[in-house]
Amino acid sequence: MKTLYLVRHAKSSWKVEGVQDMDRPLKGRGVRDAYSTSEWLREQNCIPEHIVSSPATRALHTAIIFSKNLSIHANEIQMEPGIYHANTKDLLQIIRNLSDEHSSVMLFGHNPTITDVVNKCIDHRIDNVPTTGVACLRFDIDEWKNLDKKAELVFFDYPKRRREN
């Protein structure tokens, strides 16, 4: 069994002028949402063995906040440059190349690719994975390279959903 947590980075700021897209920081709301979502995951005992992140500032900052709240040392975050510009096919290949020593991995990336990969892996459709949204997928496989099988959507959560409940 393999468990994959696909996380869209938290809300980023467009206010900082002259900053390239790769370097856009998180907004205050993004930081708060990253803390609340990672705390919720900790309460649900959803703690991955490994974290992989896009090197974009907004994704990596989100991953660092999650790692702190999930008691995973930030130095253990694997930065994967290919996630930043990945399309669906590229991201699926990055996932297939994960080490089989990890049964559960949390991957931080960007839309529309995160939403597209979730929809490729499940039998129904999610319109959008919003910022700081998390989709937990469970695959009945022993090796990541066999990711072609459909996954069970264990849960799909995001900050607005928890605020509404």
UniProtKB/TrEMBL annotation:
Q: Which InterPro entries match?
A: His_Pase_superF_clade-1, His_PPase_superfam
Q: Name one Pfam family in it.
A: His_Phos_1
Q: Which SUPFAM superfamilies match?
A: Phosphoglycerate mutase-like
Extract the PANTHER family matched here: OS09G0287300 PROTEIN (PTHR47623)
Q: What is this protein called?
A: Phosphohistidine phosphatase SixA
